[in-house]
Amino acid sequence: MKKIDAINSVVMENPDSVFGYFAWPSVTRLPDGRLAASSSGFRISHICPFGKAVISYSSDDGNTWSVPAPVIDTPLDDRDAGVTTLADKRVVFTSFNNRVSMQRYHNNRSNKKLQNLVSAYLDSVDAESAEEKYLGSTYKVSHDGGVTFGELRRSPVTAPHGVCPLPSGGALYVGRIFDTEKEDSLACYRLCDDDSLEYLSHIENILIDGTPALSCEPHAIALTDKDILVQIRIHHSSVDAFTTYQCESSDGGLTWTKPHSIGLDHGSPPHIIKHSSGVLASVYGYRRPPFGQRVMFSIDGGKNWDKDYVLRDDGPSGDLGYPCSIELSDGKILTVYYQQKEEGGYCVIMQSIWEIPEEIIKKIKE
Asked: What share of the chain is helix, strand, coil (3-state, %, to 5)?
């Protein structure tokens, strides 16, 4: 087994509270050098109407973190919190939510007190008004380095870690089209100077054994302003329901290759960074025993991947993943993700600080 040594710790939790579930994090370096981590927190479970998209800050490269504070908190369940710093110093914070009826459908809990709590809250929400105003993918933009965030905006697409910064400034948003009737298509938008989103292109749906696969939860990285790499969570009955495909653009997101297998047996959704060494590192959740987080590396710009390096294999269950990484000032990598601390306990936001294996660094230098 290819094992990576790491220093592991907790970033966000709310112990001794029924609102102790945190999941779907992201991390970025702000213009002033601090780190910011985001997640959906203060929840009672994986599906929960109380979820809010929160942010924490670190002034010491992840050694300590501030208490999480809400950035997006609609009457609906605010999930998948992305936070991204752009070259022009804007900070973009993203989330999405679902219908009240979806929350009612899933509110069948063994703990009847919590079930009644959720029912009472949902009864208090004017579903029609809340959904008209907030339903779907949402985002806010900060123009002061991530200290405060502007108005809540609606986005036609959603992705767990938000937008893809471009080296020259600005960003693309490659995500799953938010459509409550049919959510199996990916599209690419450009973030404009006025913080609005402009449509650029669609990414082709793929067929496996003659039937459409479900494409969702992509992550895009811009290797240059023109060369964009996207990895995508794929579901299909004839392949693993939790795997990763890839597509590429050589014209800044105007056109895309057809998504294709990268030979990963299991694992998703992915998040990719380009290390200062030139190595691409993509971290993904692994929801088969032993549960945890894994990494794959590419030394040729994403054409080939060396897979299944084990970052964590101590997860109590498959309720984990959605990793996001940044490079620290000393060349180490900090990766955030969600995972249970113990079997039966709440999920929390954890981090691992680790280094790219020497054999990978050696290969790219050859």
From this structure: 10, 45, 45
Tokens of 248: 């590429």
Strands (E), 13-112: 21-29, 35-43, 52-58, 69-72, 79-85, 91-96
Secondary structure letter of residue 242 according to DSSP: S
Place of tokens 């989330």: 95
307 token code pair:
């897979």
How far from 358 is each of 335, 354, 365, CA to CA, in Å? 18, 12, 11
Q: Quick check: bond before 269 cis, omega within 30? A: yes
- SS3 state of residue 119: helix
CB 92 within 8 A of CB 175: no
Distance of CA 296 to the CA centre of its chain: 17
- For 265, left (φ over 0), alpha (ψ -120 to 50), or beta? alpha
The CA–CA distances, whole Å, from 249 to 214, 261, 267 equal 20, 16, 23
What pLDDT band is residue 366 in, cutting at 50, 70 and 90?
confident
- Per the listing, tokens 């939860």 go with 217
Instruction: Classify the phi-psi angles of 130: left when phi > 0, otherwise alpha if psi is within -120 to 50, otherwise beta.
Output: alpha
What is the pTM for the complete model shown? Answer: 0.97
Statement: residue 149 has pLDDT above 60: yes
pLDDT tens readout for residues 66-119: 999 999 999 999 999 999 999 999 999 999 999 999 999 999 999 999 999 999
